[in-house]
Amino acid sequence: MSTPSIITFLTEHAEKKTVSFHMPGHKGSAIYRRFGYDDFLQRMMDCDITEIPGADNLFQTEGILKAAQEEYARLYDVQRSYLLINGTSCGVIAAIMASVPKGKKLVMARNSHKAIFNSLVLADIQPVYAYPEIIDEYGISGGITADEIERCLAENPEAEAVILPSPNYYGICSDIRAIAEVVHKRGKILIVDQAHGAHLKFFRNAGFADMPESAEEQGADIVVNSIHKTLASFTQSAVLNLNSDRVDHYVLEDKLQMLESTSPSYLLMGSLDINAAILKEHQTTLMTEWHGSLMHFYREAPTVKGLRVIGSPLDTNAGIRMDITKINLDMSAVGVDGARLEELLMERGIFAELTTGPILMCMTGIGNSLNDSKRLIEALKEISECCGALAPSPAKSSVTAVLKEKLRLFPVPQDKERIPLLEGAGRICASSIIPYPPGIPFICPGEELTEEVILYIKRLRDAGEKVIGINDQGEIIVGRKTS
Hints:
With 483 residues, the chain is of the alpha/beta class. Helices cover 36% and strands 15% of the residues. The strands form six sheets. Strands 2-10-9-8-7-3-4 form a seven-stranded mixed beta sheet, with helices on both faces. A four-stranded antiparallel beta sheet has the order 11-12-15-14. Helix 5 crosses helix 11 (249-259) and helix 7 runs parallel beside helix 8 (176-185). The radius of gyration is 22 Å and the shape is globular. The protein starts with 5 loop residues before the first helix and ends with a strand. The model is unreliable at 390-397 (pLDDT under 50).
C-alpha cells in the first residue's frame, strides 16, 4: 500500500467531516464563513504575499501589522503585544533570552514544553527545576505551587527569571497571582507559557467565574499565547504579551527578530487579524456558546456508565484549578484505557488530542459546537455499552513517574556517544528524549537514566508512539564514559 501525498491525506480527511477535539481551535472554515471571511478563504493563494509597499514589516511595525498588535494589546489589556509566526515556541525562547543573561539561571517547571528546554542550549542557561504537584489518582502532573517557586528561588537567589506552563496540557492551572507575588518580591521576572490558555481572558470577560483568570490578569510579566490552539487563527500563529516594565521591550524585540522567519507568512498574520476582529465584535456570544456546549457535556457525562471526568465544574470535590475547555476522559472502569478509547472514538469520526495511561484528553476550541458535545456523549455511551469487554491496548506512559522520581542532575555532557537505549541505565543523558505529544521531556540533558525510565521509553516505542531523541536503530545520545 503506497503512502498518500500530504494533500491527498488532508483533502480526504476534510471530506470525512469529522469532529475535532484537537488543535487548532477554529475547527475548520465554518467560523470564518459565519463572520463573513469567505473572500479570504477563497482568495488565500492571492493573499500569500511578502513585504510589499503597504504590507508593513513584522520587525519594524508601522502600519497594518502595528495596528493588529495594538488590537491584541487592547484585547488582553497589556502594554504591548507581538504577532508570532513561529508559534509559541519562538515566543517563550525569546522571552527567556530577553530575561536571562548567558550563563545565568532560570527557574523552570520540569513539565515545561521542549521549546523551553531548547532555550537552555541556545542561550547557555542553567536550569533550576520546579516540580509540579502529582495527581496520583490519574498519573498526571498538576500545578506548580508558590511554595515550590519560593523554595527554588531561596536555594538559587541568583536565578534571573521563572517560567512555567499554565494551564498545563490537561488544563490544570497554577496560582499565577501567588507565584507572581513570590517572584516579584525577589525582584525576578515571571514568564508564563499560556499556550493552552489563550481563551481564558475572554471567558472571564464574558462573566464565567468557573474559568481561571488569565496569567495577564494575575500579574505575569510576559505571557505567550498559542492563539491557534484554542481560538481562531491558523496553526503556528501566536501572540506574546508584554505586561510590565521589568523586561526591556527593545531587547525582547531584538530576540524575536533573531528567532522568527525573515519571510513571515501573511496568511498566518492575516488569520491572527481575523481572530482579533472576531473577538472584538463577538467574544461574548462565542464564549457563551462555547461554555454552553461544555456544560452540556459535563451535565450529560454522569449518564455514561463507567466514565470519570477529571475536574468537572459540577464536581465540587474536585479540588483542581481547572480550565474546563480541556475534557479529560477516563473509562478504565469498563476496561477501556486512553489509547483504546482514542481508537474507538476515531472509528466514530471523533478525533481527540492526547492519551496518557487511562486518560484521553479532548481539546475543545472556539469553533466547537453544541452538536460536537452531543456527538461525543453519544459515542461514549455506545462505547460504554458495547465495548467495555475489550482488552486494553498498550497504554502510553506519562512523564509523571519521572517527575516524582526527580532524577539526579549532572552537568550536561560535552563528550557524547550513541548507545542502545537498553544499555543506558546509569548513564548521563546528553540529548532530550521527548514523547510527542505532549512534548514534555522524559529525560533532559544532564539527567541520569534509570532502569525504570528506560522501560517507560521502551514501552512507548513498542506501542508505536513517537519519541523524539531515539534514532531508527533504537539508540540514544549519552555522555561518553571516562576511563
